[in-house]
Amino acid sequence: MRKYKILFAISVIAIGLMSVLLASINEKKEEKQQLQQVPKIDKWETKNEEFRKHYPREYDSWKKTKESDQIEDMLAKYPELVVLWAGYPFSKDYNAPRGHFYAIEDNRNTLRTAAPTDANSGPLPSACLTCKSPDVPKIMKKDGDEEYYTGKWAKYGSDIINPVGCVDCHNPETMELQVNRNYLNDALKTQQGNKTTLDNATQQDMRSMVCAQCHVEYYFQKTPVKDGKTAMVVTLPWKEGTNIDDMEKYYDSIQFSDWVHPISKAPMIKAQHPEYETWKTGVHGKNNVSCADCHMPYTQEGGIKYTDHKIGSPLEHMDKTCMNCHRTDEKSLLDNIKLKKERKDELQGKAIKQLSAAHLEAGKAWQVGATEEEMKPILADIRHAQWRWDYAVASHGAFFHAPEETLRTLGTALEKAGNARIQLAKVLAKHGAADYKAPDITDKKQAQEIIGLPYGKLVEEKKVFTNGLMQEWKKDAEKKGIYNPKSTEGIENKTSY
Predict the structure, then answer these.
(1) Which of 79, 240, 364, 438 allows an S-S link to 360, with CB 3.0 to 4.6 Å?
(2) What is the pLDDT of residues 105-138, one digit of tens each?
(3) Distance of CA 461 to CAs 119, 248, 466, Å?
(4) pTM here?
(5) Homologous superfamily of 45-236+290-313+454-487
(6) What is the DSSP letter of 126?
């Protein structure tokens, strides 16, 4: 009798467990079916938190990009950069990039965007906001690209308020991947030998194209528009191709420069963030391993498979990224990556010092009577050397995406900087300044004094802006219904100053 009681009890427990399991499976099925049914979301809903009710896992993982909140002052780390970027906003302030969550926050706080007092003041154009917010394509659609690109950065202070998020990459009505910024497709269509455009891109192509809207090299093309105004149009220099040599050739052919260096007088190019281009030259790009494959891996939670939107280093979860393809142990792979980075860091450090000295030596050459004819080939070498160095390091993952090409690029940067200094030594000697030695740069303050940057004044002006006009923008955006202040509640205002 006791035996039957035990068997009965086991049966009851087993049935209970099966019921729980079946209920869980059915729940997951229902959840999966629900997620597959695209909810109705306004086509131009740019408040990222509005997507959480329908896509909680994706949103919560995206919000984790706020965890990369530390400020790393790159001008303090490499003070020679102040000299390299003299006369350009980056000499004022440059920090290592943080997560997408801080895209607007960091754009407003940096000294590079200065301290406008109204919608029409400040040194930078509206184009500087192009990659920072889903509000941008919304405005482009509403006002037209031409109007968007006309005017100052402060023009859309209360309209461009939400950081990089859902609508930048997804059509809310279908959640299909989309590119909202026309300049990418324009560049793809005009690029010599290119066959892939947004019109024929595969799903796998799109998993990189959505990133290429922003993570590319670009410049602002001055374009006359109606009423005598000038639009600063975001343009990709891809007409000749997408490698560094092709883009350099293009920039030289149109005689483009972002600024003229006030000390060396070299016409300079500022590399932006050419991650897409460097990825294309490496083994991952050549095999169409997409950006999302490594930076946004699939994650399993119960019966739900979703894309992790905490965009960051693939090394944070190698089991979901690297180890899907690489048949080696994690330690060996990490050791290899570490070695590549060390080699890149060594060369970039040498290039920075060479370029800093070249700018200062060129400045001295002008002072002692050097002629334009003497200086022309020297300035060309400085221009190309700095562009190549900048290209190799502005693409933050270049050493990972294309290590061989990155080292080649840095090697040619060193070569051209060295050539410039050899020629400068001859010019200085000719004009009686053979004993001139460029000062060693030891800290950011010293470097900013050398280039005559009024750092303290800039900081005080910025504080007036952040405590005044910037707060007005936030209040106005809230009234318009395009900004939820709770989305940034508790965020510490961190800067390098």
Answers:
(1) 438
(2) 999 999 999 999 999 999 999 999 999 999 999 9
(3) 16, 36, 9
(4) 0.91
(5) Flavocytochrome C3; Chain A (1.10.1130.10)
(6) G
